[in-house]
Specification:
single chain; 77 residues; mainly alpha; globular; transmembrane; Haloacid dehalogenase-like hydrolase; transmembrane helix; membrane
């Protein structure tokens, strides 16, 4: 049975690039409708971030929770 491996390189020792941005572009291409719905749903957080009402970590937290919920539905975890 084939297994997939997910690797995150936060300090750029393995991958010389911005993994979060590259993954987001990949996800947008693979799941365009889900990505657009996410952006519409959570665009209010982007506006709040622009006005310094919420910080970037809050937006990232929402994004990762969205990805996690997608994974749980897909693999029925």
């Amino acid at each position: 049975m084939k297994k997939k491996l997910v690797v995150y390189d936060f300090d750029k020792t393995i991958y010389d690039g911005e993994t979060g941005v590259n993954f987001s572009v990949f996800y947008l291409k693979k799941y365009p409708l889900k990505s657009i719905l996410f952006l519409i749903t959570y665009s209010r957080y982007l506006f709040l971030y622009l006005f310094k009402i919420v910080n970037l970590s809050k937006i990232k937290e929402k994004y990762f929770k969205f990805l996690e919920s997608h994974t749980k539905r897909k693999y029925r975890i």
